[in-house]
Design brief:
145 residues, alpha+beta, STM4215-like, 3 helices
């Protein structure tokens, strides 16, 4: 899982242009937001790993990772659908970019298959005087051992 998280982080830092590289990070909990750092941001959370024996010699490891997409709430609707006049992406825009960057991406051979599982319902999170909209993107990665 460690190598997968690092590969996803590097991939998203180089492909999702609306998010600064420093604002792509690994988190302990997608519901904890940083009051330091910038927005929009992407936080990677490790999921479970399932092991399946396909035959006497073939094993498939299925790893799940959630990528939380965060945008600052600045005006009505913009957190979800974006604001093109202000060049502000919404969580749905960024979720689409994350899926486009990771779908069918073997991440330099770290995995053999990458597929999106879901984009969860967006929620509002707040700390002090900061409010953000967050949507979780769940991806499934398979590794053939």
């Amino acid at each position: 899982m460690k190598d997968l998280l690092l590969a996803i982080k590097a991939e998203l830092q180089s492909t999702v242009t609306a998010v600064l590289a420093r604002d792509v990070y690994i988190t302990e909990d997608i519901h904890l937001i940083r009051n330091a750092g910038g927005y929009p941001a992407l936080a990677l959370k490790d999921g479970g790993t399932d092991f399946a024996l396909e035959s006497s010699i073939n094993e498939t490891d299925t790893l799940t990772v959630t990528i939380a997409v965060y945008v600052k709430l600045l005006k009505d609707e913009a957190g979800i659908i974006g604001d093109s006049a202000a060049n502000q992406p919404g969580v749905l825009d960024l979720a689409g970019e994350v899926i486009a960057a990771l779908r069918d991406n073997t991440l330099g051979g770290v995995v053999d298959l990458a597929l999106p599982v879901s984009v969860g319902e967006s929620v509002t999170l707040a700390i002090d005087n900061l409010a953000v909209q967050m949507a979780p993107v769940t991806m499934r990665f398979e590794r053939y051992v």
